[in-house]
Amino acid sequence: MAEATANGDIAPDEHRSASGQLLAADGTPLKKSIRRSEARARLRAFLLVAPLLIFVLLSFIAPIADMLFRSVENEIVADTLPRTVEALDAWDPQTGPPPEPVYRAFYDDMLEATELKIHTRLGSRLNYEESGMSSLFRKTNERRLERFDLDQPLQPQFVDLDKDWGEVEPWAVIKTFAPRYTWGYFLQAADMRLTPGGVEMAPEFEQIYLKLFWRTILLSCTITLSCLLLGYPVAWLLSNLPARSANLLMILVLLPFWTSLLVRTSAWKVLLQEQGVINDILVYIGIVSDAGRLVMINNQTGTIIAMTHILLPFMVLPLYSVMKTIPPSYLRAAKSLGATDWTAFWRVYFPQSVPGIGAGAILVFILAIGYYITPELVGGTDGTFISNRIAFHISTSLNWGLAAALGSLLLILVLGLYWLYDRIVGIDNVKLG
Amino acid sequence: MALQPYASTGQRIWYYTFRVLCGLILFFLIFPIIIIIPLSFNALPYFTFTPGMLALEADAYSLEHYRDFFYNDAWQQALWNSLSIAPAATLLSVSLGTLAAIGLSSGKMPFRGVVMAILISPMIVPLIISAAGMYFFYSRIGLQGTWFGVVLAHAALGVPFVIITVTATLVGFDRSLTRAAANMGAGPVRTFFKVQMPLILPGVISGGLFAFITSFDEVVVILFLGSAGEQTLPWRMFTGLREQISPSILAVATLLVSVSVILLVTLEILRRRSERLRGMSPG
Amino acid sequence: MSLKLKMMMAGAGIAGAAVAGAAYAADELPACEGCADSMTVVSWGGAYQNSQQKAYSEPYAEMTGVEFVWDESSNEAVAKLRAMAEAGNITWDLVDVVASDAMRLCDEGLAEEIDFDSALAEAPDGTVATEDFGEMIVSDCFVPQIAYSTTFGYRTDVAEWNGETPDDICDVFDLEAFPGKRALEKRPINNMEWALLCSGVAKEDIYDTLETEEGQAQAFAKLDEIKDSVVWWSAGAETPQLLADGEIVMGSTYNGRLFALIEEQKQPVAMMWDAQVYDLDGWIVPAGLPEDRKARVMHFLKFATDTQRLADQAKYISYGPARQSSAPLVGQHAELGIDMAPHMPTNPENATNTFLYNYEWWADYRDDLDAKFQAWLLR
């Protein structure tokens, strides 16, 4: 709109229109008229999209942004111990325990904090970094602080309260985590840690997140691959059968697609248990003995089988829609030119189905990598994903900063794949059902 | 695909092996869903076939677990919650989503790519991340543990499906129809409801079905965002499954499978109708 | 704690007869001025919540007409309370949690501190609450209800054991004498202590040992011996289910769950009480409740934690009441009609070798050891 009015004010335009330029019915130059209606159409389109855009921004994008923020946010230390943080600024952990003014500042801060009962919360926060901080802060309570003799040096009295206050470590931890924003959670999420001396790798036997990320990726790859192996023949069959029988078989693909995830997961639990249907059948046939029942659940096997089943339709459908467009005459032509069945397939058909493979594989991989429910129910200990750890940190360990950092890393991974998907398939070409 | 009369023995063998292979894969797809149906009628609280069931004895089967579902207050409350949350979320995402899809398909939308990416993102971002973000953010603004908060979250998750299905329908939409309506003097609102809407209705309904099933099946977000008052069917199934498989879960599962069959049939009918309306051949 | 528990339970053994009537008759319950007329109580669901409803909330509702809403969210109570506090919108009035969660809630400022002597009822003989609860009071915010224990159940029909039954905690680690799968909880707490006990560390040195890297390595080395035969559980109902299905031959869980499996469902399972780990369960009041709701909660709390009410709960579930004065009132199971005392974790016969769970220590080392435990599981 604004653009149109601006144009209307420009005199040379009208002048030139008089000198033989095309005019619209109402006498305005056609170019301007078109531009005006274009602008109106653009505004109309935008107004139609705006309510949903605002809705999604508020209900979905804002939470994601909040999570990203939480992964670096660390205001609690500076908010609870403002004077101490300032006093520690000049202190160097190499020189031994901090000087008396730090203890003074700490005393004042803690007196306020204990009155508000927020000192223990800080203890829980710092305990993520150094074991023992929790009880150290809990012990340093109002009752004990009020007994301090302020005319005497405070350091010995703090040491008296707990000898750890006379050590370097607790102060070094406070100093290291004093800034309002920290990379500490991200470092933890990558099995590193922030120490007073800088960033270092966690000891070998404590590394877990890189391994978990790696396992998540590896299992997702395995699941994608098995979906491809099972999905390709089915998609081929569906796209080469006459419409009537293809539609009938399609129901077998679509019914699982439409069935609740939990229904399918519970079905696999029923099937795969040691006392479950599959083991019963195997024992009945005599393939395995009653004592030698196969362990197929609560491990990686369970996760791979159940998730392959759950994600298979997401592989078959894109493959099918691509294969549908490959004319069967190409194969016949190749064969009549002397190609064997295999060459005709491998050199002629397969290359044309690659876009479908790309689309299906990335879709399955993106979905697999963020799975939570199925691994939680059938994954045991070695079939769980990084998502399960995120959930653990949200609801059990309460280390929300670390959960947010792990989530952010996973998000970056998925968005990278999404970008790839958009490049290969185009997000407009996603088809459902 | 049909076997040629002049096919060699090797080709014949391969042809039948391939068919058997495909049959096995399709069996793998459908078998787990079929198997829970007879098991849900087990008279005993086990989830494997009892000898009595295999011998087809009548008293080895019972409707007890269905009775449990229909008479248990907790399950009924969960069913009721599911039936109140899913339609509300669907209504929200369908009404906003349809308007937006029309805007997006007009070809005049500025920054279309970015906007599209944002609107599709709830489908791409892993649920655990959405759940974590919503849990943190909704806690800050007081929506955590409320019915409204859950509806908002589920509506956001359903949006991409509405956008995708409705824009897909609009690709085949003949724009000269709206222009013709405008020519004959219909206002934009009238044009929308009398001309455009009936034609894209199948797309809107199938988008709505997707949005509905997204909310109706959703378990990750509700686990974090809901409180006991918003316990839905999937939530109860999840906690039940994590603790122990009680056969009443299988009864619920069977009921849910019937729901998906109904949805599947509805969708198929809609697809045919839509293709007929748009003058395409009915596949 | 264990000594007092033993004393309490020694009393429970002889208390078949209902000794005293209710502490309050209906008209004696003091009126509640300016109190809300409904409350949301959070608990664990299942048999345990049921016992609370029977013993506490149903009689209370009858007397006062207060409406109770139950929420089965105790498992996620800490996380949800934190989320509610951030939003400034506390929807819960009273929350049932285990002691370690209560300490954490208290640390985070999410639970109200309670003045035990003024807020809780005296024992029938006039003993003040702090003395009646005694060492059960482990946090300023936590009103204990029951003592329970985490212990082992095993199947009694395992052919490979040649008639032997496990009666020592170290039998759990002995795959030669007792082959078969075991279920252990998927967290370091309890497992680390048992592992150290069975690798020769004295009971009183456990936590000092566990504080050192070598001690942790020693515990993991012991757990390594059975790692391949362990099914890890995360919900208390899993072990009973796995035992009943024969998927495992022994497993740890809460003693009340095993009681239900053995006495109510009559499964071929028996208890092994050796090195059982005591823990407490009780109430916390969320911090920052509005006046009228808080008044109602405190009114209910005083009623629900009096001597008679705690004793009543033991009729429905095999957990020991937290008040010493309740012990003599514990009687028979409400439906089965069997004496409850022999099934209590605190029964002298069961409590010959018990283990005390160190809350303070775990509050400090939980984050660190949990990461190490997960890393160990991944190896």
TrEMBL record, chain A:
UniProt keyword list: Cell membrane, Membrane, Transmembrane, Transmembrane helix, Transport
Domain ABC transmembrane type-1: 213-421
Bilayer disposition of the protein: Multi-pass membrane protein
KW Manganese (keyword) present: no
Biological process per Gene Ontology, one example term: transmembrane transport
InterPro entries: MetI-like (IPR000515), MetI-like_sf (IPR035906)
Locations listed in the record: Cell membrane
PROSITE patterns registered for this protein in UniProt: ABC_TM1
Pfam families from the UniProt entry: BPD_transp_1 (PF00528)
Residue span of region Disordered: 1-22
Any GO CC annotation of this UniProt entry: plasma membrane
Transmembrane segment boundaries: 45-65, 212-238, 245-263, 304-322, 354-373, 400-421
Keyword Glycoprotein recorded: no
Signal peptide stretch: none
UniProt record similarity statement: Belongs to the binding-protein-dependent transport system permease family. CysTW subfamily.
Protein name: Putative spermidine/putrescine transport system permease protein
TrEMBL record, chain B:
Primary localization class, coarse: membrane
Compartment(s): Cell inner membrane; Cell membrane
GO biological process: transmembrane transport
Matching PROSITE patterns: ABC_TM1
Domain called ABC transmembrane type-1: residue spans: 79-267
Cellular compartments per GO CC: plasma membrane
Name this protein carries in UniProt: Putative spermidine/putrescine transport system permease protein
Keyword terms, alphabetized: Cell inner membrane, Cell membrane, Membrane, Transmembrane, Transmembrane helix, Transport
Cross-referenced InterPro entries: MetI-like, MetI-like_sf
Entry-linked Pfam families: BPD_transp_1
Membrane topology: Multi-pass membrane protein
Entry's family note: Belongs to the binding-protein-dependent transport system permease family.
Native source organism of the sequence: Albimonas pacifica
Transmembrane portions of the chain: 20-41, 78-102, 114-138, 150-173, 199-225, 245-270
Domain of life: Bacteria
PANTHER family from the UniProt entry: INNER MEMBRANE ABC TRANSPORTER PERMEASE PROTEIN YDCV (PTHR43357)
UniProtKB/TrEMBL annotation, chain C:
Key words, A-Z: Signal
Keyword Membrane: no
Signal peptide: 1-25
UniProt xrefs under SUPFAM superfamilies: Periplasmic binding protein-like II
Keyword hit for Signal: yes
Cited Pfam families: SBP_bac_8
Highest taxon above the source species: Bacteria
InterPro entries per record: SBP
Protein's name in the database: Putative spermidine/putrescine transport system substrate-binding protein
Species: Albimonas pacifica
